[in-house]
Amino acid sequence: MKILITGACGMLGQDLCPTLEDLGHDLIETDKETLDITDKNKVFNFFKNSKPDMIIHLAAYTNVEKAEYEKDLAFLVNAEGTENIAKAAFEFCIPLIYISTDYVFDGAKCAPYFPLDKPNPLNVYGKTKLSGEKAVLKYCKKFYIARTSWLYGTHGKNFVDSILSMKNNPVIKVVNDQIGTPTWTMDLAAALIKLTDKPYGIYHLSGGGKPVSRYEFAKTIFKYANLSVNLVPCTSAEFPQKALRPKYSVLDNGKMLRNWKLALKNYLELSL
């Protein structure tokens, strides 16, 4: 199968692409230099010339905090860019996988979110990703919307590596009032491949197992890394940010991904 990947150089893309190649797929890997998703004409011409059998749309503006200050750019990439991809997918009758986020929810439910629960994003990033979802729903008939959460991986800045970089700090404060489930990019890549065997629709692809706070996640990271540190829980109010984060953004993944602790162990074995 010939698969077009947008955002192939991102954290998820750099794990997904080799996985797909190992399965024998022919990949068309793009980044913002080779495919400007914000230019509708370029997107249509690219699709017309490359003739992919499937599209996996990873390209996105992902800086949650910075999006509050660069709202127009975030909407241009995540909303308008995704709309261009969705329209082209419909025009050429190509199945589309769109990666979305737990941040489309406000966290008020205080229970795991199911795919058909009503979104209500708190921040600009979440709003832009939800706009992307709406574009896919509006224009595509053959689509998968895959929401994920707390993503980490070898090829990009992430919570696991950031926490480990603080190991020599006298005190490490981590918020204890944001609850979710971590997701390793390699596990997500495998789940995306399996997703194509399922009916079109919206799915939650996040780590399985018991939800944790950011503090509990950090505690587990140091435990598995055999590091003794002075880790202290705190509230989000102690780290004021312009972008509001949902307090509870746990996604019910329908047992599509394994326990996040098992994934974290594997990640640390490879990276330490």
Write up this protein.
This protein has 272 residues and is of the alpha/beta class. 38% of the residues lie in helices and 17% in strands. It is built from nine helices and twelve strands. The strands form four sheets. A six-stranded parallel sheet has the order 2-1-3-4-5-10, sandwiched between helices. A two-stranded parallel ribbon has the order 6-9. It has a two-stranded parallel ribbon with strand order 7-12. Helix 1 (13-22) crosses helix 7 (185-195) and helix 4 (71-91) runs parallel beside helix 5 (124-139). The two termini are 35 Å apart. The model has no long low-confidence stretch (mean pLDDT 96).
Properties at a glance:
272 residues; alpha/beta; six-stranded parallel sheet
What's a quick, concise take on this entry?
The protein is an alpha/beta fold and 272 residues long.
What does the average pLDDT come to?
A: 96
Q: What separation lies between the terminal Cα atoms?
A: 35 Å
Q: Largest sheet at a glance?
A: 6 strands, parallel
What strand line-up does the widest sheet have?
2-1-3-4-5-10
Helical coverage, percent range: 25-40%
The total of beta strands comes to 12
- Beta-strand percentage range: 15-25%
| Quaternary structure state of the chains depicted | single chain
Shape: globular
Overall radius of gyration: 18 Å
Low-confidence stretches: none
User: Helix count?
Assistant: 9
Query: N-to-C SSE series?
Result: EHEHEHHEHEEHEEEHEEHEH
Query: SS-based structural class?
Result: alpha/beta
Layout of helices and strands, plus pairs?
Blueprint: E1 2-6, H1 13-22, E2 26-29, H2 40-50, E3 54-57, H3 64-67, H4 71-91, E4 96-101, H5 124-139, E5 143-148, E6 151-152, H6 159-164, E7 172-175, E8 179-180, E9 183-184, H7 185-195, E10 201-204, E11 212-213, H8 214-224, E12 231-234, H9 260-271
